[in-house]
Amino acid sequence: MTAPAANLSAADYAHTLAVQARKAGLAMAQVPGRVRNDALKAMAAGLRQRAGEIVAANALDIADAKSAGLSAAMIDRLRVDEKALGKMAASVEQIAAQDDPVGQTVWSSVRPNGMRVERRRVPLGAVLIIFESRPNVTSDAAALCIKSSNACILRGGKEALRTNAALGDAITQAVASAGLPFSAVQMVTNPDRAVVNDLLKQVGLIDVAIPRGGESLIRAVVEQARIPVIKHYAGNCHVYVDAGAANLERMARDICVNAKCQRPGVCNAAETLLFHKAVADRLLPLVCADLAGQGVEVRGCERTRALFPAAKAATEDDWRREYLDLIVAVRVVDSLDAAIDHINTYGSAHTDAIVTEDVFAAEMFVARVDSGNVMVNVSTRFSDGGEYGLGAEIGISTDKLHARGPMGAADLTTTKYIVTGQGQLRG
Amino acid sequence: MTAPAANLSAADYAHTLAVQARKAGLAMAQVPGRVRNDALKAMAAGLRQRAGEIVAANALDIADAKSAGLSAAMIDRLRVDEKALGKMAASVEQIAAQDDPVGQTVWSSVRPNGMRVERRRVPLGAVLIIFESRPNVTSDAAALCIKSSNACILRGGKEALRTNAALGDAITQAVASAGLPFSAVQMVTNPDRAVVNDLLKQVGLIDVAIPRGGESLIRAVVEQARIPVIKHYAGNCHVYVDAGAANLERMARDICVNAKCQRPGVCNAAETLLFHKAVADRLLPLVCADLAGQGVEVRGCERTRALFPAAKAATEDDWRREYLDLIVAVRVVDSLDAAIDHINTYGSAHTDAIVTEDVFAAEMFVARVDSGNVMVNVSTRFSDGGEYGLGAEIGISTDKLHARGPMGAADLTTTKYIVTGQGQLRG
């Protein structure tokens, strides 16, 4: 990596990174899969070999975070030890072992005049990833961009500045030693917020920004960006217990509890449960009692409170909330249609599940719920690139354009039409 | 169509259209392909049956355009006669006959825990199309949106207001008679520019805007939009005559002339020709003489002017120009790399062609030219949805995200992950 000089202004620093990324991206488009995979293997080896200095840099960040009074949860997310580095390296090796996402012909046609039209999968070019403290994103994001023949610019949280600098150094050295362009992976080492804002305006040089973190980070990125952004703001996920769940008491209880409680602080945890009126009398009290037994606060509509008096009264605001906590909103609905309308009105288009044995209800739910992930008789917690078998994920999209749901390496590609002929002219 | 009341403010009118489109879009997701195709056939029949009133409405628009002093070319683009309506109807019937772009499983995996993960092609939802005077866009755009199970809002040029109102009335009546939602196709009948600007801000209701027209229209849309936009600004297309074209004199001459002259006013016409120095001495004067013979003004670099003295001097600005006219910029380059760099620096990432018999040069050009359409030994004029066999096109994208190149019905879809299980929980 030829790092921009330290004395540049934020605007010049950002522009220099972007120009280098554009150039590296064009060169990356020609790098064969074998070379990219060798670079990934070198990167995994580098992470293991340089564990000592990375952990030492991390200790400095952790010490600062403690003095700054960061929460124990945030410090935990920031921590990198030898075991964590081993996992990061293993993830990079798994990405190396995946099929090459670029170069495939996704559509082709030989036209009556003899010319061949082919739509081929090609890299996007330059990808900007903006993330908060988890340092494992650094290696996953770099690896997925290399796998998909993209150049990348990585901007981590300022709490992890020294950790990311050490990781970035290990990664870029490994990648360059394997023959990739020097600027294929660039780490933003200037923590000035103005650099990010300038990077987000490099139209024509950076092809997409992918922010990962809390809703306020994502909103700030969208607000500043003039380049395309792929994002998800929040996960207000639902489990709907259908009339057709009358014989599925065990499954309804297990899925609701798993979706809410197994890891409440993540985006694919359930926030609202909906019960069809035909099964609410029997199933709602059982599910709510299970949840209360796990320490969950239940906030319900009038009908919920009649069936489960311990519930607090839910307000309109509760239907929109992503609690990320042991709180759940519960509502009784009159029909499948009402459940779908509730989800499409209040949800975040992330992940929504139905519990039913009625195949027509399942079909209707799948067709009409306008979310990136729709689950039938499965916990919402499975909405994840790893669980889907995509390998590591670069993020999750609740957008509809380009990519939707968990995003793997193939989602970092676009297509190009290639037309080959023998001198055809248009008449 | 339940048209919004005429006395609404621009903001309320736009919001009403958007709410209706969102609702219709959700309903369209469930409409079977047979019903959508029947609606398209009814639409084609409606265009033919109501030709009299549409042509009469068009005559009023044409009369106004003449009084307003519009150019003959613009009036020509505005004109709709019975023959044009017949072509529009035939195009709609062709779209009806295409394969259904929605519902396909594009990827699937059965996970070790037995759950099935499927990525299925689904409609986007609600599409806003903003276009200038050509009324045939009205029927093509409506038909492609219906084919892809989307609701649409169509906003044509104000010169064609009465023509589009008559077309819209014929289309929406036909569509509703076939059983589609009333608001599946909505025509913006209020010419106030504020309505468009408000429509472009309906985040969560309208899923994408596709502007079609001149660069100033597109820039205004991008500037105003808070919803995603798929677009192309301009077509600064290149033909590069490679060192490997030494034995392809006839092909080089024919492709350059066809790309520049066959229809100079359109986006896939060539604007700049590049010659490798090894063949420039012999081929450049022949090609330039051919072009001059067709009335083309040649603007060249120093080396071009030495070989073809009739050429005017090109400035830096000429390399960036989309002339849309009988003018061409010509440059001699030292290498294939220099040609690729020129195209990636000055081009518009639309369509670029190489003429060569060198397979390695062709491969390098295809891999490194960062454009949506790359042609080998074919005229740039073939960059077109119809020529590619996609059927009618909703537009052309020079963006990289979501869709790139000519866009057919399949480009109006997104995907959704559908996960089906038997009560799986995450551990």
Overview of the structural elements:
The structure is a homodimer of 427-residue chains. Chain A has helices spanning 10-28, 33-49, 51-67, 72-78, 82-97, 136-147, 161-177, 193-199, 215-224, 249-261, 277-293, 302-307, 316-320, 336-346, 359-368, 385-388; strands at 105-110, 116-123, 126-131, 151-155, 185-187, 208-212, 237-241, 270-276, 297-300, 312-313, 327-333, 351-355, 373-378, 395-397, 405-407, 413-424. The first copy, chain A, contains 16 helices and 16 strands. Chain A has 2 domains: 10-231, Aldehyde Dehydrogenase, Chain A, domain 1, CATH 3.40.605.10; 237-384, 3-Layer(aba) Sandwich (Aldehyde Dehydrogenase, Chain A, domain 2). Helices cover 44% and strands 20% of the residues of chain A. In chain A, helix 2 crosses helix 7 (161-177). In chain A, the strands form 4 sheets. The first copy, chain A, has a 7-stranded parallel beta sheet, sandwiched between helices. In chain A, strands 5-4-3-6 form a 4-stranded parallel beta sheet, sandwiched between helices. By secondary structure, chain A is α/β, with parallel strands linked by helices. Chain A starts with 9 loop residues before the first helix and ends with a strand. Strand 16 (413-424) of chain A pairs parallel with strand 13 (373-378) of chain B.
Quick tags:
homodimer; 427 residues; alpha/beta; Aldehyde Dehydrogenase, Chain A, domain 2; 2 domains; seven-stranded parallel beta sheet; 16 helices; 20% strand
